[in-house]
Amino acid sequence: MGYNSTRLYKDLLIEHYLNIWGNNFIERTWDLGPMKELSSDFSILEFAPNVNRKMWTYSTCCMSTFTHVHPIELHVFSSIKDDSILELLTSVSYYHNVDNNLDLGHIVNFGRSWQDSSQCYYGLVSLPYLDGPDLEILNPDKEGLKAVHCYWLIPITKSELEFKKQFGLEVLEEKFDATQFNYLDPKRNSVV
Predict the structure, then answer these.
(1) DSSP of 55-86, one letter per residue?
(2) Is residue 174 part of a domain?
């Protein structure tokens, strides 16, 4: 698929995000490192807080394309405006395209702390529980185009990673629910 399908993918994705999070965003890029491997259309959309949502939302845009077997996009929430999330999501997107396609339930090693001195060095690809199915699936109304899944990348600790390996994704997510963990707090304690 050429330029037109990539542009179509990006246009459909941005429209999808706008329908969920509104139009208070800017398109950002992180240009350091080996990012030439990513599509020239790749960016991170930074959605500022608004009356309905009191947090920053950072979402990949063109992490995948319609050429991927299972196109996905990821988003991370933050209580503060944080340029380091641009680097984090760009690195995760690079991994997705060069090393191993990510999907629901996968875990990625950030290679550093999520924010500040957080114990969260990993990200769990999860359903977008805060926004539900309206965000989760972008179904283009054009014949032959694949559905795109928009997942939440939840920063997790090493002990949560080990717990997920031992007991599974569903049990870890039940722990998140039971403890009502603060997904915006980089200094939060592990739920296990």
Answers:
(1) SEEEEEESSS-TTSSS-EEEEEEESS--THHH
(2) no
pLDDT in tens, 139-178: 987 777 899 999 999 999 999 999 999 999 999 999 999 9
Q: What letter would DSSP give residue 132? A: T
72 vs 11: CA distance, rounded Å: 15
**Can you tell me the distance from the alpha carbon of 97 to that of 183, in angstroms, rounded to the nearest whole number?**
26
**CB atoms inside a 10 Å sphere around CB 119:** 18
Helix or strand (DSSP H, E) at 91:
helix 84-98
CA angle 120, 124, 125 (to 5 degrees): 150
Question: Quick check: is 60 in a domain?
Answer: yes
| Domain boundaries, position 78 | 3-158
pLDDT per residue as tens digits for the range 99-114: 778 999 999 999 999 9
